[in-house]
Amino acid sequence: MTLIKKSAAELGALIASGEASAVEVAQAHLERVRAVDGQVHAFLHVDDEAVLAQARRVDERRAGGEELGPLAGVPIAHKDVFTTTDMPTTAGSKILEGWRPPYDATVTARLRKAGLVILGKTNMDEFAMGSSTENSAYGVTRNPWDLSRVPGGSSGGSSAAVAAYQAPLSTGTDTGGSIRQPAAVTGIVGTKPTYGGSSRYGIIAFASSLDTPGPFARNVLDAALLHEAFSGHDVMDSTSIDRAVPPVVEAARRADVNGLRVGVVKEFAGEGYQAGVLNRFNETVELLESLGAKVVEVGCPSFAYALPAYYLIAPSEASSNLARFDAMRYGLRVADDGTRSAEEIMALTRAQGFGPEVKRRIMLGTYALSSGYYDAYYGKAQQVRTLIARDFDNAFEQVDVLVSPTTPTTAFPIGERADDPMAMYLADLCTIPSNLTGNAAISVPCGLADEDGLPVGLQIMAPVLGDDRVYRVGAAVEKALEDRWGGPLLAKAPELAEAAK
Amino acid sequence: MTTPTIVKYEEALTRYEPVLGIETHIELGTNSKMFCGCPTTFGAEPNTQVCPVCLGLPGSLPVTNHAAIEGIIKIGLAFNCEIVEWCRFARKNYFYPDMPKNYQISQYDEPLCVDGHLDIEVEGETYRVEIERVHMEEDTGKSLHVGGATGRIHGADFSLVDYNRAGIPLVEIVTKPITATGDKAPLVARAYATELRELVRSIGVSDVRMEEGSMRCDVNVSLMPRGASEWGTRTETKNVNSLRSVERAVRSEIERQAAVLDAGRRVIQETRHFHEDTGVTTSGRSKEEAQDYRYFPEPDLVPMAPSREWVEELRATLPELPAARRKRVQREWSLSDLELRDVVNAGALDLIEATIAAGADAASARKWWMNELSRRATEQGVELTALPITPDQVARIQAMVVAGELNDKLARKVFEGVLAGEGTPDEVVAARGLKVVSDDGALAAIIDQVIADNAAVADKVRGGKVAAAGALVGAVMKASRGQADAGRARELILEKLGAS
After folding, report:
1. pLDDT, tens digit, for every residue of A139-166?
2. Chain B positions in Cβ-Cβ contact with residue A326 (cut-off 8 Å)
3. Lowest-confidence pick of A329-338, B321-330, B442-451
4. In terms of domains, do B428 and B484 share one?
């Protein structure tokens, strides 16, 4: 098997044992990027020389006797929302084109320290607002399963890069489903850790109370290894939880569900759900039962209000978070011809620098926070948040984990929902509740839909700081399904034509 | 027909009753900023005390400075406030280039300290100023408008922004409406600001320097016709940079608003700017077209929940507060109300107390600081505290007076020498040879000469007019350049002239 098809854990072991060098591994992935990224367009920035230099440093550190972690030398792609001192960081927006942050995000810094090699920065919906990566100012990313379809979003560059074997690991951020939904529609694993379990420092904010960094990988164990490598308390993030990282790697290795109580969320089915998605989901629930889990149906009536509450809270916070992009200190500045006031330049720059979806959400949020409307919109949405938390609390009194389809449908064709925000927003229907309450959730592949042969994701949700549970159940499902399929789901993806080298 | 732009103050007060409200911003003297580790030194090179957090760079996050929360809780306690058990920061959203994030982290409907009061004295009468709230926020950067006549943004060629100040911890103290002050309104405003400054300074959380902007007052004034029950429309005057300006700004607004109301027009709710040079306010931004700040709880910070134990610990660290201290000092030093006020106004309280602590008696300590040294400070145009002499040195000089080594006149020469940088009191005494001469031999020679030079006066004394001896003592003092022991000289003169 070529290096690019290996898991992150395998690559880490090969590098540790000296069977492969970090440079060789980096080289193989850079070649793959060159070969397929013209079609996929997962990356916004790759600098071959810088990548090889990082890999060389890891090899030197190892040669120097330094004790390195299990992922040392393994390449990783970062969503372009994580600040990196040695690469531009744009958040997929024209307003930050070419901006070089003077500091690393905590996630970036911790992974550098652990010896991971940053391959590059991946495409995303502008400021993480979207479910298809079509809202990027730098072009669309394509789904490796079907290049005419979206790779999900907002972390679509990161999901596509992993699904297309351009990187074994990548990072994303999940504000309403932006890791789990792209993972589901590209047939890979993606986790939204507990809010506060992983630092937000250095991640360009969309909605501060919801944004959560998390891992993408091609299998559950790899995701757990990455999760563990960058998580844990950070004094730079006041909302970071000062507790030990749940034992996610151990849980992923354990991979059993015997005696575990699994709740099926009753509300996540019916109208709007693709038949093929529900078929795979229902089969997976049966599989869990056959593996020894105790399955019950659980009602979460307030989940129906999660989507509207989210579309008040997230835009409200975004309208404030994005106010800093004003042409004064960094980023784009237009029309500064010496005759205009600061206020005019701010307005003109923002008009030109932000895309339509970002403007839509700034408008929504500004309105929702306005005096006289606050109670009816933002205030009410916060009350809904409390109700949803109550539903989760009730559910987790009866069961250890909740399961649902990750998304109502498989990957949709590029352009299909671009002009219909409501249809686009529905892609996050099942993932949003966990963002509103901060609990842990994962998406693992559970098969291909009958209608279109595209990947379907199973979402597993656990209480706050119950991250280990989602890995334990995810790994059990993965093992059983791969036994059934005779290998990973991704092996069923069509081979991408490699461009001439 | 033109209406007068102001009504004379005394006349205005015959028809209208002022209502005041004062919002005071205090920069805390913490070593680092409110939400990052940047230093807070005043006067550093522009934009050298900044980092990703206080510049609001994408992805940066605030972390609360514990020392600042300690500072505001102490202020809240000093103002007799309730310290709430749980509250949050809020974002105040508006666009301005000196705000790095285009929102200010502040507090909105959940302030940390509520319902306090501060008693102040004006012309012997005590007023209780009720405190609505004391809350925590971050300061903005500072804009410098270059070109144009006024230094304001209007008419400027370009503007520069210094973000060193951005993120410095700022405490805002807001009064409830201050009513029933009548014609004392300007004095009450000034006394409140003065007492607030003393109080904050006494607990050591800020240097409260109005001239450097570490204390800034916004003064709200409205007028209502005498006997009315409904308050008038208020204006908010900013840019009030001294205690004197607080008084003048209130007075000026009363005069201006009275003229507006007399003319049958209405007062516009707006921000106004006070001008030190002319003593009047001019219109700023109209509040009626004011922005909507879209406050909401700051999601990047966790709520503040100061434990009761911590609050009590902080209460226990509070020093004696100014009002209690003044009462004690007045009693211990036996001062009249007027004398106490003079000491306080001269800023001499600390100095006198330290001088007493160094061994001087209260009356002498007060005498030196309030007379000799105050005069010299006035001559030099500096604050008493800025004189190059320490309370220890004053006490030492007084000790030499008590020991009879110096008289008052010589002591003043020692002060002169110390202030001129000639060294410690003992060094000045040695270098200038300032010793009281009480040695009979040395005095006798001077006295003989004086008697010879003033034969007529000496005769009068011999003839029994003992009172005339005073002139001879004066001549001895003059001849000895003040160093003679006047008492001994008198005894010797009377002895020699056979009048004793």
Report:
1. 999 999 999 999 999 999 999 999 999 9
2. 95, 97, 102
3. B442-451
4. no
Report angle CA A9, A11, A15 to the nearest 5 degrees. 120
Does residue B72 carry a pLDDT above 70? yes
Q: Among B96, B296, B304, which would you mutate to test the A interface (most chain A Cβ atoms within 10 Å of its Cβ)?
A: B296
And the tokens for B332?
């211990």
Boundary (domain end) residue, out of B378, B401, B432? B432
Co-location of B224 and B365 in the same domain: no
Residues B205 and B282 in one domain: yes
Which chain B residues touch A82 with a CB distance below 8 Å? 59
Q: Are residues B95 and B138 located together in one domain of the fold?
A: yes
Which positions of A are catalytic?
79, 154, 178
* Number of residues that make up chain A: 501
Mean pLDDT across the stretch B155-170?
Answer: 91
> What proportions of chain B, in percent to the nearest 5, are helix, strand and coil?
40, 20, 40
Interface test with B, best of A241, A329, A333, A436 (most B CBs within 10 A): A329
Least confident of A136-140, A169-173, B18-22, B285-289: B285-289
Whole-Å CA distances, B308 to A367, B75, B86, B112: 39, 16, 11, 13
Among candidates A134, A133, A321, which has minimal Cα distance to A211?
A: A321
A229-238: per-residue pLDDT in tens? 999 999 999 9
Q: B168 in a domain, yes or no?
A: yes
d(CA A208, CA A238): 11
Find the chain A residues whose C-beta atoms sit closer than 8 A to any C-beta of B: 81-83, 89, 91, 96, 99, 101-103, 105, 200-205, 207-209, 235-239, 316-317, 319-320, 323-326, 328-330, 342-343, 346, 366, 369-371, 374, 378
Q: How many residues make up chain B in this entry?
A: 500
Q: Do B216 and B305 belong to one domain?
A: yes
- Among B310, B336, B360, where does a domain finish? B310
**CATH class name, domain A3-303+385-492:** alpha beta
Among A242, A381, A407, residue whose Cα is nearest residue A314: A381
Angle (CA) A189 A192 A195, round 5°: 165
Q: What is the pTM of this model?
A: 0.89
Contact A204 B103 (CB under 8 A): no
Place of tokens 């854990």: A9
Report in angstroms the alpha-carbon separations of A37 from A128, A162, A292, B99: 21, 12, 42, 41
> Which of the listed ranges A422-431, A490-499, B46-55 does the model predict with the highest average pLDDT?
B46-55
For residues B276 and B339, membership in a common domain is answered with no
- State the Cα–Cα distance between residues B264 and B259, nearest whole angstrom: 9
